[in-house]
Design brief:
Layout lengths: L2 E5 L3 H9 L8 E4 L6 E4 L1 H4 L9 H7 L4 E4 L2 H16 L5 E5 L2 E5 L10 H11 L7 E5 L2 H10 L5 E3 L5 H6 L10 H9 L5 H5 L3 H19 L17 E11 L2 H17 L8 E10 L4 E12 L2 H13 L7 E9 L14 H21 L5 E5 L7 H4 E5 L3
Parallel strand pairs: 2-4, 7-8
Antiparallel strand pairs: 1-6, 1-7, 2-3, 5-6, 9-12, 10-11, 10-12, 13-14
Helix pairs in contact: 4-5, 11-12
């Protein structure tokens, strides 16, 4: 077995049902943030002809008892990362194809896991149990994905190479890696199983559906040519998180908090004397709505002012989905090299800034806190002077 597929179908809806399991047998629709369209639905809701993409008004007309749940992207993102980490515990070669669908290359693991049951147990134990993920093991990527779909929730299904064609033949054609329009044409042709497509001549399939159809034909025969594309090994990174109670409401308060997180991140031992290639800011609301932006720097730099100059515009014009409960800042791509030599004209300014920072660090060590503060503009439009400006600790 070379390929593993860890799958949680409909991850966003699965997160909802994991927290509220009593809804599993009820007609439930997952909607977007504006509650205008259906993103996903339970099998009970599908009986009322409710489907993804349907306007919510039409969905409630079809099923008056429909339970509407708004998506929570932050929660879904955390679940997707947990699945990636679960496969990462057994293999360094992991590909996240989609939220809730993760692949791993298992070659070379025989010494660590001499028996298949040890391997499957290690993966399923590392995955979030409340999501009841399915695990498929096979010789090719597509067969592993279909094995995961066919597995019972929370269990594994392995398909040997000699059994792949027969196993795939009885699976529904809707699981083929083809677009909606092509799948509809297959249905009109009377092809309802994967084996129905595999039984057709290759030249006929390619003539009708082009290269995607030919690749699907190969996959249907257990000969999927699609390679695994593992994500590149992540360079060392630094993460700082701030949680707020009560949540932050003003954009200015969020901006100031991110600036503080940047200073804290640059002071971490892993970031000292290192240069940063990218900065990611993630904001999560009380309702698990997600706002995320990534800024790739034009050149690696370790200068705080240059990094902040690149990140600040993202925050000043941001439209957050609600009051911010958690802020996370990540410095990625840490490197020991810089893409630009420092200018001699900036030497004096940098020297004076370093001297002041060193003095403040010494005072902080002596008194336990920073005795130096700086004035920052918070609400310049306010009529109350105390709200226009605020004192923040200068913490280099």
């Amino acid at each position: 077995m070379l390929i593993a597929c860890l799958l949680v179908p409909s991850l966003g809806l699965a997160c909802v049902l994991a927290e509220r399991p009593h809804l599993a047998s009820r007609p439930v629709a997952l909607t977007d943030m504006g509650q205008s369209r259906v993103l996903d639905c339970t099998s009970m809701a599908a009986r009322y002809n409710i489907r993804p993409g349907l306007p919510l008004r039409e969905a409630t007309a079809l099923c008056p008892s429909l339970i509407v749940v708004e998506e929570r992207p932050a929660r879904t993102a955390r679940a997707a990362e947990a699945l990636i980490e679960a496969l990462g515990t057994v293999s360094p070669l992991v590909e996240a194809a989609a939220p809730g669908e993760v692949y791993a290359d298992l070659r070379g693991l025989d010494g660590l896991y001499p028996r298949r049951d040890l391997l499957t147990h290690a993966i399923l134990v590392a995955a979030p149990a409340m999501l009841r993920p399915r695990l498929g093991l096979a010789d090719t990527r597509f067969t592993a994905a279909i094995a995961a779909r066919a597995a019972a929730p929370g269990e594994a299904r392995a398909v040997e190479p000699a059994e792949a064609a027969g196993f795939l033949a009885v699976q529904p054609a809707s699981w083929l890696p083809l677009g909606t329009a092509v799948l509809e044409r297959l249905r009109l042709f009377g092809i309802t199983t994967i084996g129905g497509l595999a039984a057709l001549p290759a030249h006929a399939v390619q003539a009708q559906f082009g290269t995607p159809g030919w690749r699907a034909w190969l996959a249907a025969r257990g000969e999927d040519p699609t390679p695994l594309r593992p994500r590149p090994f992540e360079a060392e990174r630094v993460i700082e998180v701030a949680q707020h109670e009560p949540p932050l409401i003003g954009r200015e308060a969020v901006t100031l908090t991110v600036e503080q997180l940047l200073g804290r991140a640059l002071r971490q031992p892993r970031a000292v004397r290192r240069f940063v290639r990218s900065v990611r800011v993630r904001a999560t609301t009380e309702g698990d709505q997600l706002w995320e932006r990534t800024q790739v720097l034009r050149e690696p730099t370790g200068d705080r002012d240059r990094i902040w100059h690149a990140v600040r515009p993202l925050l000043e014009y941001a439209e957050y989905p609600g009051p911010i409960a958690t802020l996370e800042l990540e410095l990625g791509g840490l490197t020991a090299e810089s893409g630009r030599q420092s200018s001699l004209l900036d030497a004096e300014r940098v020297r004076r800034r370093d001297q002041m920072d060193e003095m403040v660090r010494h005072l902080k060590l002596r008194y336990g806190l920073s005795p130096v503060a700086r004035m920052v503009e918070v609400e310049p439009w306010s009529r109350i002077p105390e709200r226009r400006w605020a004192l923040m600790d200068y913490d280099p």
